[in-house]
Amino acid sequence: MKTARHAMVLEIVSKHNIETQDELAEHLRQNGFKVTQATVSRDIKELRLIKVLGEDGIYKYATVDKAESGLVDRFMRMFSHSVIGVAATGTIIVIKTLSGSANAAAEAIDSLRWPEILGSIAGDNTIFVAVRNGDDVLEVVEKFRSMMK
């Protein structure tokens, strides 16, 4: 029963803009599930649903992967608009950004989850990116430069 209910919750949030637990409970009831607010709350937690800002400016429930895809697009735009230079030395890539933009650009880098990248550290206008292997540095630099266009 729980597995079927979880599947229905995922279907509902993918098809409808669900703003509240009460709305979700009502949709579940309409689909034949007898639920309480506590059950819905547990389901939301177990399914790791989060509230995201929709295109219409209203918060709604979404799965983490759906939320991340929207954020990745936003971070990529921020990256391309804020990065002004990329250089490398050894296994470290240094990225220069407009003042105050490094954190957003570093978040974009981290959201890519490229296996070549160990991590990044951002200041105000500079990001250090640690690359796993020196052989991969030039390839990663070129990827960053293509994102700037």
Concise account of the structure shown:
The chain is an alpha+beta fold and 149 residues long.
Poorly predicted regions are none
Structural class: alpha+beta
Number of strands: 6
C-alpha Rg, in Å? Answer: 20 Å
User: Numbering strands along the chain, what is their spatial order in the largest sheet?
Assistant: 3-4-6-5
Order of helices and strands: HHHEEHEEHEEH
Strand content: 15-25%
Beginning-to-end CA distance, first to last residue: 50 Å
- What share of residues is helical? 40-55%
Question: What fold name stands as the CATH topology of the largest domain?
Answer: Gyrase A, domain 2
- Structurally, the number of domains stands at 2
Using the alpha-carbon principal axes, give the shape. Answer: elongated
CATH class bucket of the largest domain: Alpha Beta
What is the architecture of the largest domain at the second tier of CATH?
A: 2-Layer Sandwich
* Mean pLDDT over the full residue set: 90
Number of helices: 6
Q: How would you characterize the largest beta sheet? A: 4 strands, antiparallel
Question: Would you spell out the secondary-structure blueprint of this structure?
Answer:
Elements: H1 2-15, H2 21-30, H3 37-46, E1 50-53, E2 59-62, H4 64-82, E3 83-89, E4 92-97, H5 102-112, E5 117-122, E6 126-131, H6 137-147
Antiparallel strand pairs: 1-2, 3-4, 4-6, 5-6
Helix pairs in contact: 4-5
